[in-house]
Design goal:
Chain lengths: 480, 142
Amino acid sequence: MRIKTYQRSGVLFLDALIGVAVFSIVVSGVIYAMLFSQQGMLKSGDRIRAVFLNQKAIAAVRAVRDSDFSNLTEGTFGARLNPSGAWELSGTGVTTEDGYTTFVTITSLSSERMSATALSVWDFGIGASGSTVLSTEITDWHRVQEVGNWALASLDGAYIDDDTPLFNSAAATLTHAFATSETSDGGAGLYVFDITDTSDPLRIAEGFNLGAAGHDILIVGTNLFIITEDSGQEVRIYDIETPSSFNTGNFVASINVPGNAKARAFAYYDDTLYVTAAEDTGESEIYSYDVSDLGSISQLDDLNDPGSSFLDIRLLNGYAYLGSSMDTMELRVVDVFDPSDLEFAAGGGYNLTDTTDATSIAALGDYILVGRNQGDITEELHLFDVSESPVPPDAPWNAETGESVNALDADPTATYAFAATNHDSQELVVLNIATFAAGGNPITETYNTTTGDGRGVTYDILHDRVFLLTNTAFIILQPS
Amino acid sequence: MNIQSSSNARGGYVFLISVLFVSAVAVSVLGSYLMLSIAAMENGVTFQSSTQALENAQTCAERGLMSLFLDNGYTGAETLALSEGSCEILQPGGFGNDNRTLCLEGISGSHTRRIEIVLERLLPSIQVYSWQEVATITSCSY
């Protein structure tokens, strides 16, 4: 009996011992897991805090760049606020009160691009140290390209043709310019110029002939859109990805605008092409096309304005402003918010004094500038304030050029507008818009050429140059 | 006697089984803590990677804006390899100097962040109408 009792106690003791051991191991594991978990959460918090500090350092670099890109210099800095509350990069790092040190290293990649790498490190003891990195690039896209003083314009370069192309309109990329022309007197319809050196425009692709007169022209990405007098292809589209080898093989697509070679001008916005046309009794005068897929261009809508020819078009704030031949409404305004539902804006437009046709339009911020044929009793330039209403509620400011205005363009800052005219000694007229809107004489400069009438004008912000198109010349003008 | 002996033996097993039961509960708690710990650590790493993805998108934004400023005919559609991932500049919307859109994607690890920028004009200086992070790009085509 005694032996049995001893044996049972031993088993019980062994059971308890095993149980306690197992329990101890498990509890130790739980405690370790709790500590590990806590440590993991703390580490995670440390890392997130460091990432925030990196973000702040990068934001500081951008803030410094925003004030002036040249303030960024190569090296390793700390980002801190100066006494005036602006970010500055100085020292070699910034340590926060809670023990994080953040460095930002700036490295120049090119004249307009730098890399910025923010590094935050922390060391709170064994197992509680680490670092994070955040990298980005900063460029000089805040720079301002100055518009020169066009109150003094001078010749930069010119191409003068042996024939009389009767140039009409131009568009340019950084390296090349494209100019349309008539074909009635030896013109090729389209001319391509290498303008890498704007003082010496070189005609290239001399063998190319459009086969029809070219009117308006614009560049969308790597595609060149041209209005032509080809009755089956009033709009032609060419690929100009490699302009130096431009040829007929660059043809991409065309649009057969209703009517017989009546298209005259167009404008593009958000995959939609708006084409205007001269009067055709059986057809409309403005069309909208979906050109998102050049392989499948579709007409969205059209709008008829009986008795009217729309000779030019500009888009501004969801409205199309049209230069019209209609005697009672030379400025037409069309609501194009929905390109599938073109409709005249309330009021329809503006009836200028006299009956001379509106030939050209320019959009300048809050203003619309209209150019007209020469009038015996009226001026040829009219500036409307459209800031309050798309259809001008008030009479325009007017200016006299003495001869017909054939084309208009403006610089993007709306400081200057440029008019091509038939004037014998003032083929280009430079207008100061602020002076115009203040009621003064806006003509600040004129340019005289012996190469014929001013038939077209294009302001090129990429080069801060004006392309003046005359009977025989493609002229590049520069500001002082 | 036999009855008393077996009763004592059962007592030992009950204690052991109780311990095992408590241990099982404890192990599940341990497992939970471990998973919680891993998740917490992943949070930090995920946040870091996601932030880098956004910075990569910003890098492409900077490059795209600079390219558009220098040449408004810039066609985008390029992927840039970066030190901490990559980014993609989609084909910009619009044409010319006014009303352009720029769409960017930044990638870091398994994270992708997207930005859409609407520009009022490019020159003489870029004017931004809106600059926002989006879940899906709708203003540009891939």
